[in-house]
Write a structure and sequence with these properties.
The protein is an all-beta fold. It is 2% helix and 45% strand.
Length: 232
Amino acid sequence: VPQNSVPAIAQDRAGFMWIATSKGLTRYDGYRLRPIELAGDTTAKRSLGWVRALAPAADGRMWIGTEFQGLVAYDPEQDRVESHAEGGPQAPIRALAEGRDGAVWVGTMGRGLYRYEPGAGRFQAQALAWRGEPEARVLALRVGADGTVWAGHWRGLARRNADANGAWQDVPLPGLPDGMPVLALAEDRGGRIWLGTQDGRLGVVEQGQVRWVQALGPPIQALAEAADGRLW
């Protein structure tokens, strides 16, 4: 692995493990680590640099969110990394998620949330807000099985229902009137959304409301459900 700072890990449809670091991206096939790079004649031109977000696509691609290169994707059929940065946000990408329609949700640190349509190559800015004020710092994204898009941001949690015509709603965080960064989101097999906060709270959304489960102390950076139903 090129560097021991690992902001994101993902598994694609083929079973490969992807490891994002501050000095590029590698893919593990069970035997060796392979660098995943841009085309270029020098190491500097090939490197993706800081990679902070990964999202496996239904068509086998891996969407990659970078610090300085914008949105890129690895195409397994062509065995190459392709840039999708044109027209997109010029800001560090911190979160990615693919929707049921193939659109990619792109969360940035400082430029807000975008919906990207790969076929058209078009980015659409989203009106994400907290208490009526624009919120441009998106830290976590998740698309639920029912099509609801969840966005964890610097001051809390928002959702966009599949039939909401693009409208976003605040999801109150009980006991946190001034908000709190939501760093991690996961969906369990029952369709419940779990969230982890900067101050170490583990919560779950039940009947549209957040219920705190436990206060763990350190920031919760990532969440995932195992095959046996346990939450890591």
